[in-house]
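Lecture notes, part 5. Sequence design as translation. It can be helpful to think of inverse folding as translation between two languages: the language of shapes and the language of residues. The source text, in structure tokens, appears below.
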């Protein structure tokens, strides 16, 4: 009886805590060794919940003789986790214990390889499947096609496909996706044309493949050929247009879709909103907001959360909090998104206030909320508060700190100049620090000019992640600031020897429902001329007001743009100049940038905001900068 009770409790279980309680009950009633109950526990911890894989492993280890189903469950759990490779060692264990694999075993194994993309391992798994006579199985074949494509071999994928006697629609679609994954757009089209039957899914796969490959022209043509478009086709097209910066087209499609009788659902709306927030496409987002109100979606919490995120990421904090305030049943995600928005804008105190308000209203914060609030504390210099909240997370809410939380803490100490504390903190972490943690400390060393610690940290980084160019740049900056030019030259030489390339920087600006994207020293851009002309006019005027460009030998900050075209043509400068030339003189200029803003651009933007009386909002990789009357909300600390 207690077995059945356990299983019915499990079905209602929603958290690790609850799972532990039920497990306790199972032990007390002695049904914890029942194989049926055990497989259920395993299924729940490995698959149903997303972050309980460690618990699943513990449970699995306690089972004396796991059967094939249990092994498959664990392999599947790993394939969906952030340690997909572990599925291979589980399979090895399965063989050692003489448990026979079935077609599911191989399908799950291959799925985990899709996430690691290792071609060699895919080949080995293929051999094993053949040895067990399971390779003709349609599941296994289809997974093989996808795994080979993920490993970069379209040839192997094609071979598997060609050996299939009667490929079904799923395998056709897998082959289509495989071609698109390997950027074989023409081959995809050929397969598509060969298909004996066409369902709307296949059309949609090719459509989204064209979008991913940035082939907007081809996509548009295909889209018009689709005989019976469904909601997915429309969404793919609209989101693709937003991501490609064609907001006007996205806008028209949105209207057309409704005229053809399709009503966007909350999935399409949140999808479009998230595309807008990534692109910083505020105007288009506002239009969608208008539609949301009219179409009666404004009571849906997920839609409102996406709106708060949109306004926040587009730099409009007032609208974000306006939408947030009106949400009736705020869930943990709503609160967390709003805390993130405040954090990104450097409003640390307000973020902390909101956090306590959330707790008071009876909503329990989760791991993501704590990442947001710790981030808020570190960016606002609230060191003591951050430490307090970190302890509260562990002591009051029993949330296991993740790498992200540790990263926030290192940042918190590091930014405030407590480099020794940061180092001590890392040394005492219960999990092995990853490259991001050390990189955070390296960044702090650069802010505070600690050359000795920086060298030590860089050595650690060279062990874990030797090929990361931003670490080299950071170290050479630290040397440059300390005036150690010989060391700067050594670092640069070793970068050149390793043929390292920096991530190219870009900045985007929305003008008249079109998103324009600029790279440093942009020459190919059709609107470059406008931008360059305005830029030189602006710089001349700023010079007369005391602006001096910082074009010394210093490489500036982490991963800022290449100096080949000199600092004066950085992408955000071009974007600003273009905005000044084309936007209404009263309007706020909004820029989205993929890297951090460099010192010189930051200084120039402060000047522009004072001399021209313009408000400028820049979202860079780490936060928002709002430039007004000669100063920035980050207080020159970012
Ligand atoms: Zn710059
Ligand atoms: Zn700033």
């Amino acid at each position: 009886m207690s077995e059945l009770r356990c299983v019915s409790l499990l079905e209602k279980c929603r958290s690790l805590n609850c799972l532990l309680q039920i497990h306790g009950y199972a032990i007390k009633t002695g049904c914890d060794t029942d194989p049926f109950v055990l497989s259920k526990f395993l299924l729940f911890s490995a698959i149903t919940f997303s972050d309980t894989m460690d618990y699943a492993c513990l449970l699995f280890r306690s089972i004396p003789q796991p059967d094939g189903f249990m092994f498959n469950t664990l392999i599947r759990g790993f394939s969906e986790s952030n340690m997909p490779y572990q599925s291979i060692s589980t399979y090895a264990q399965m063989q050692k214990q003489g448990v026979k694999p079935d077609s599911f075993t191989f399908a799950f194994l291959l799925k985990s390889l899709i996430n690691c993309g290792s071609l060699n391992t895919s080949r080995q798994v293929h051999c094993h499947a053949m040895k067990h006579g399971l390779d003709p199985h349609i599941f296994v074949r289809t997974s093989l096609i996808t795994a080979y494509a993920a490993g970069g071999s379209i040839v192997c994928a094609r071979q598997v496909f060609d050996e299939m006697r009667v490929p079904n629609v799923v395998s056709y679609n897998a082959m289509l996706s495989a071609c698109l994954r390997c950027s074989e757009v023409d081959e995809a089209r050929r397969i598509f044309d060969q298909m004996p039957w066409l369902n709307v899914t296949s059309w949609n796969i090719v459509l989204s493949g064209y979008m991913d490959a940035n082939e907007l022209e081809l996509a548009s043509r295909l889209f018009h050929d689709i005989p019976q478009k469904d909601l997915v086709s429309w969404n793919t097209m609209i989101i693709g247009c937003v991501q490609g910066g064609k907001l006007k087209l996205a806008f028209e499609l949105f209207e057309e879709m409704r005229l053809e009788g399709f009503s966007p659902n909350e999935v399409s709306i949140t999808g479009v909103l998230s595309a807008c927030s990534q692109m910083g496409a505020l105007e288009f987002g506002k239009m969608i907001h208008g539609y949301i109100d009219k179409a009666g979606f404004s009571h849906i919490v997920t839609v409102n959360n996406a709106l708060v995120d949109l306004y926040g990421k587009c730099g409009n904090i007032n609208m974000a909090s306006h939408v947030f305030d009106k949400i009736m049943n705020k869930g943990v995600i709503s609160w967390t998104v709003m805390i993130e928005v405040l954090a990104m804008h450097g409003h640390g105190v307000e973020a902390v206030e909101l956090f306590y308000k959330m707790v008071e209203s009876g909503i329990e914060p989760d791991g993501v909320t704590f990442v947001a609030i710790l981030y808020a504390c570190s960016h606002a210099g609230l060191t003591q508060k951050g430490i307090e909240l970190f302890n509260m997370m562990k002591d009051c809410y029993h949330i296991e700190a993740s790498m992200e939380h540790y990263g926030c803490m290192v940042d918190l100490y590091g930014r405030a100049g407590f480099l020794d504390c940061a180092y001590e903190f890392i040394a005492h972490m219960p999990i092995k620090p990853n490259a991001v943690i050390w990189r955070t400390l390296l960044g702090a060393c650069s802010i505070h000019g600690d050359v000795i610690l920086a060298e030590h940290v860089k050595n650690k980084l060279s062990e874990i992640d030797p090929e990361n160019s931003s670490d080299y740049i950071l170290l050479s900056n630290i040397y440059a600031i300390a005036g150690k030019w010989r060391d700067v030259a050594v670092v640069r030489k070793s970068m050149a020897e390793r043929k390292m390339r920096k991530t190219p920087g870009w900045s985007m600006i929305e003008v008249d429902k079109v998103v324009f994207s600029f790279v440093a020293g942009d020459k190919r851009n059709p609107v470059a001329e406008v931008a360059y002309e305005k830029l030189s006019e602006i710089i001349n005027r700023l010079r007369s007001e005391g602006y001096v460009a910082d074009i010394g030998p210093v490489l500036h900050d982490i991963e800022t743009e290449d100096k080949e075209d000199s600092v004066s043509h950085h992408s955000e400068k071009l974007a600003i100049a273009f905005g000044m030339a084309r936007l209404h003189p009263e309007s706020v200029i909004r820029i989205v940038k993929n890297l951090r803003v460099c010192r010189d651009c930051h200084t120039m933007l402060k000047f522009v905001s004072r001399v021209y009386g313009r408000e400028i909002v820049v979202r860079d990789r780490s936060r928002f900068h709002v430039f007004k009357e000669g100063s920035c909300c980050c207080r020159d600390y970012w």
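The translated text above is only one of many valid answers, since several sequences can fold into similar shapes. The beta strands are 506-511, 514-519, 589-593, 616-619, 624-628, 631-632.
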